[in-house]
Amino acid sequence: MNNLLKLAEKLYKEHSLSVAEYEELISCRTDETAQYLQKKADELRKSVYGNKVFIRGLIEISNICKNNCYYCGIRGENANCQRYRLTPEEIIECCKSGYSLGFRTFVLQGGEDAYFTDEILCKLIKDIKKLFPDCAITLSLGERSRESYQNLYDAGADRYLLRHEAADNELYGKLHPENLLLKNRMECLKNLKEIGFQTGCGFMVGAPYQTAHHLAKDLKFIEEFQPDMCGIGPFVPHKDTVFKDEKAGSTELTLYLLSIIRLIKPNILLPATTALGTVDPTGREKGILSGANVVMPNLSPKDVRGKYELYNNKLSTGAESAAHIEELQNRMKKIGFSIVTERGDIKQ
Ligand code: SAH
């Protein structure tokens, strides 16, 4: 057995490697190793979750954002972005249609929009929970104070997604303006986990300036932090951002990393993301076959979908749309999986 396969086998058995070993696994990637990792990831995911794929209804509640992340299409300084914000009533309408389509998790994602105070969010969370006590609520609303996270948790929110974006300080600094600090991002993640949220981190694959060493540090962070969820997808350029001329991340590397993350934490909730579906028409299927077990179709009202443009050509139609859940189900069935009407919590 060659050295690289030995590393992959070690990861499968021990769920841990050094940063240098992760780096080697990434920078020396071969088809043979990719196939091995994929097979083991599939095996491990099946042993924990069978052939179930969990679905989340993604509601993009606002594209108003005070931040200026260099990669993101809804950055505050983008004057070409048509801003919108859903009202609590509109958000509840989305949940209602999602519920009847079989969704039992609602993900409320948005820019860092000051309108969504604790007071407004807590009332909204309680209202959703009252209408749908059998559903989980995931929030993905960026950095907030510990006190705020606690309030949202106490109101009934179950999960929180906050991608760490880059575990390396220097890379984090190249992707974000000076006022955004990795230290704060990490503090938020630690707070979320301590409060009791099922917590998700994650990063973009193929972001500008990102090297195999940076990715190795991301993997080590995941191994140490032990998140319940991890969102990764290829970086895709947006025309109104600093990174408009950079090239997109690759499908192959994203799939390879999905398999590695499944091996690091066999019970992790791992989405095949919209960005993966955007760079490759069968990206969702390939993601699932590489170890992912979650998909997050879009449940936002039709008229705002195009406006939540994190990157260009972001999919929101066909199987990406919650309304076409049947199409998604057919696509999953074709590869031997089945989407289920369940909350889909992490299995301990
Ligand atoms: N404001 C929230 C939600 C951000 S959008 C927060 O800060 O967590 C969700 C994710 O989309 C981001 O964390 C980022 O990793 C990803 N994203 C943003 N711009 C992107 C781009 N150009 N290509 C691919 N993914 C992108």
Written description of the protein model:
With 348 residues, this protein is an alpha/beta fold. It has 14 helices and 9 strands. The chain has a single domain, classed as Alpha-Beta Barrel (TIM Barrel). The strands form 2 sheets. The protein has a 6-stranded parallel β-sheet with strand order 2-3-4-5-6-7. Helix 1 packs parallel to helix 3 (31-49) and helix 2 (19-27) packs across helix 9 (212-225). The longest helix has 19 residues, at 31-49. The model has no long low-confidence stretch (mean pLDDT 97). S-adenosyl-L-homocysteine binds at residues 71-72, 109, 111-112, 140-142, 162-163, 165, 204, 233, 235-236, 238, 275, 310-311.
Determine the number of helices (DSSP H or I, runs of at least 4 residues).
14
Which strand order do you get reading across the main beta sheet? 2-3-4-5-6-7
Structural class: alpha/beta
Sheet having the most strands: 6 strands, parallel
The overall strand count is 9
Parts with pLDDT < 50 across at least 5 consecutive residues: none
List the helices and strands and how they pair.
Layout: H1 3-14, H2 19-27, H3 31-49, E1 52-55, E2 57-62, H4 88-101, E3 105-110, H5 118-131, E4 136-140, H6 146-155, E5 159-161, H7 169-175, H8 182-195, E6 198-205, H9 212-225, E7 229-234, H10 251-264, H11 274-279, H12 283-289, E8 294-295, H13 302-305, H14 325-334, E9 338-340
Parallel strand pairs: 1-8, 1-9, 2-3, 3-4, 4-5, 5-6, 6-7
This protein binds S-adenosyl-L-homocysteine.
S-adenosyl-L-homocysteine is lined by residues 71-72, 109, 111-112, 140-142, 162-163, 165, 204, 233, 235-236, 238, 275, 310-311.
